[in-house]
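Quick illustration, no need to memorize.
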Amino acid sequence: MAFPLHPEIPEEGRSLQELFKGRDVDIPAMLARLKQVAREEGLSFGERTMTCNSRLAQELGKWAEEKGSGDLYHKKVFEAYFAEGKNIGLIEELLAVARACGLSPDEAREVLAQRKYRDAVDLDWERSRR
């Protein structure tokens, strides 16, 4: 499962206003539509003003899948980002998600530091582009 990826977004994130600047995007309408779809699917969706770079979240997701906790991880990282407005581009936020899934935060930190799943995520993105 891959999340939206904006590789140009810095670690601290970027406002939605800045992300869509110069493009004809009605941000409130877009968010209202996303909130409606989430509600129809039984998912939480909070107020969002920021977006973040989800690359590390995707890499950690590959590790969680390998550990047999992929579904829970993806649910928790979705909630952290879309419902709680957390910046899942920050390592400490991802370690909190790992902990909430019963995964070792120390091992998660090592996975992220060594970028063990970088190639696997690259392959996912290449497949999605094809």
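The longest helix spans residues 27-40.
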